[in-house]
User: Fold this.
Amino acid sequence: DAGVIQSPRHEVTEMGQEVTLRCKPISGHNSLFWYRQTMMRGLELLIYFNNNVPIDDSGMPEDRFSAKMPNASFSTLKIQPSEPRDSAVYFCASTIYGTSGSLYNEQFFGPGTRLTVL
Amino acid sequence: KNQVEQSPQSLIILEGKNCTLQCNYTVSPFSNLRWYKQDTGRGPVSLTIMTFSENTKSNGRYTATLDADTKQSSLHITASQLSDSASYICVVSAHSSASKIIFGSGTRLSIRP
Assistant:
C-alpha cells in the first residue's frame, strides 16, 4: 500500500495566487482529514469528510479556503487568493469510518505539502 | 476552554535512558486521547489511543497512561534509541465532534549517543 499521497510536496507561490493541494487517501478508507501545521499554532484540523461528504469545516480559517472531495480517491484543498500567513505544512490523513466514528480510528497521515507564500 | 498542554517543551537525553512526557487536558466531554510521533519532515504516526475506561496502553517501548479523573496522560519511553528523536504530540478528542480535536504543541525529544 502506498499510503496517503499528497502533491505537490513543496509549493512556493506569490501572494494573491491560487494554490491547490491534492490528496489521495488510502484505498478503502472513507474518511479524509485536512490539517495545517505551523510553528506558532501547531497542528490544526481544517475540515473532514466522511464518504466524500464534508462533515465539519469549522476549522477552515477563511472563505479563501475551500475543500472538495469529488470521489473516494481524491480530495483538494484550495486557497484563493493566497496570503503569506497561509505559509505552513498542510497534511492530509485518512481512516476508516466505523461504528465508533472516524474520530476514534487511527488516522494515517500523508507526507504533507510545505506551502510558502511570498 | 478546551486545551491540551504538554511538558516539557523539549528534552534531551542520552541513548538508552528512559523518559516520560506529560500531557494535561481540559477537553470536555472527553472521548479519547492519542499520542503521535512526528519525525522531522514527515506526517504524525499514531503510537497509542486510549478511551475513558483505559488507563494504560503499550506499543513496544512506548507506554501511555491516562488518569481521566485528573485529566492527565503520560508517555513513557523505555531504553531510548536514536530513532526516538522526534516530536511527540498529545491529541484529545471530544465526543462526536471533529471541531473538538485538540492538539498539544508537542514535546521535542532529542536522543544523544
Notes: Chain A is about 0% helix and 55% strand. The radius of gyration of chain A is 14 Å. The first strand of chain A starts at residue 5 and ends at 7. Residues 68 and 76 of chain A are 5 Å apart (CA to CA).
